Amino acid sequence: MPLAAASRSALLVCFAGVALALAACVPGVPPAPGADASRFRLPALHAVPDPVAGGRIVDARGREVLLRGVNVNAFVDYWAYSPSLFVAYPFTEEDADRIAAIGWNCVRLLLSWSRVEPQPGVYDDAYLAQLEQAVLALQRRGIYTVIDLHQDAWGPTLFAREGEICPPASTPAFGWDGAPGWATLDGGQPHCVQGGQREFSLAVREAFAAFWRNDPGPGGVGIRTRYARMLGHVAGFFARHDAVAGYEIMNEPNAIWLFPGQLEGLAALYAESIVEIRAAEAAAGAPRRLVFFEPAITWHDFGPGAPPPFAHDDQVVYAPHLYQGGISPVPLGPEVFERARGDAALYGGAPIYTSEWGGSPARAADPADDYFDRHQALQDEYRFGAALWTWREACGDPHMAATARKGDVPAVWGFFDVDCATNVVSGAREAFVRRMTRPYLRAAPGPIGRVTSDPSTGVLEASGTGARPWASFIVFVPAAPGGRAPRVEMPGAHWLHVVPGPGGASFVVGYAAGGDWSLRIETR
């Protein structure tokens, strides 16, 4: 059905079919550029587990939502290897506009335990308020937020001190991000890295081992217990925001299956954290948000990592990092996605959201390299949510430290090219932006059976069953050359409209007839 006159009944529902009023008619459609978005709200999300077909994320209107977006590290408390370089760039309204123009509907927003709880039991709500402003900026553009408690190699305090001598075959360790110093029980182990792997630093391993054992820290309270309570505080702070999709308990937990009790400790952390999060939400009178949980850091490379089944409710989401074909030597293919789905079945068929994936942005500029296209096609085939690593990266980020130590000039990831010799941002990586900007089904009128988005033709096709009568849908459509309107075919649909979107893009919205549904959009 080409975009044409809507049915009279649909026009009555939407008060004469004025496109700028559509945000009030179809929940989740961002206000048109320039409109007042101060009162705009997103429908709350919840999980619908399915151990056979794979779980789904559904909004308060019953629409299946595919969470797709990018990681933002602007609020991470990184260790600084150079006093003259930025460790992270601030998150701005312009960043939010650019993310919206790519068409994404979710940002994984990273924060640090060391900033949330700088002293035992003392929480820095001013820090959380900074993140809240980012949540609200994203909400105004129709973008959900996943709050991620981020850590790399335990925390920023485990760097090699001046004069520290490392044993043969090891090198002085860098600091990273995550835990505060008061929670770092490293047992006096050397701050040295073995085999080039930051997670194999003896100090990092001991700090994590103490965490998994729940060793007592300040005040005799277990370190793992402190962490779970901290998560409860974070959940209570953000409880009123439906735009917060949920909370990721810990990034890349260092639970190695070779060491007895570590995967069991990871399972205990997840169970305890869910209890604290749910208690905080209940106290605030808020609905249960999604709780995202990862396998251990070894999962995507060379070993097991899914934790043993733990006590949980039905609002959990499995969040493995699918770096295969990117930074992992394991090839990218359907078997990786099947493995993730098999793991999720252990937890009642939880939905899946790969909270990190990606590769060097230089690959996006190579027409012969189809990594980013293949990964996104697999995300569609398996209906996984996904967050690309990363939006912006700075030259002082500790990920750059190893290159700098060798005397070479680092090359940052992300969507902005930075000359690390001068610490100057030279501009956006437009080839990368183009590679990631494609037609995207943001909200389907019912369960999705199949969805494809072909970057070579600009055609999106989707179909499914079980749509409720008059269930709405939202499709992001990139700006077409010459401003040509998309051609839409959706049998039985009511009130198909194109709504202005960010950066010259648009949204195709309307209402399904109910039952089986199918959709085809040609954007070129």
CATH fold name of the largest domain, please?
A: TIM Barrel
Main beta sheet: strand number and arrangement? 8 strands, parallel
Residue stretches low in confidence (pLDDT < 50, at least 5 long) are 1-20
Distance between the first and last residues' Cα: 16 Å
**How big a fraction of the residues is strand?**
15-25%
User: Can you list the strand order of the major beta sheet?
Assistant: 11-10-9-6-5-4-13-12
Overall pLDDT confidence? 93
How many helices? The count is: 12
Provide the CATH superfamily of the largest domain: Glycosidases
| CATH architecture field of the largest domain | Alpha-Beta Barrel
Helix coverage percent: 10-25%
**Structural class label:** alpha/beta
Task: Please report the total strand number as a whole number.
Answer: 23
Q: Based on Cα principal axes, name the global outline.
A: globular
Number of domains: 2
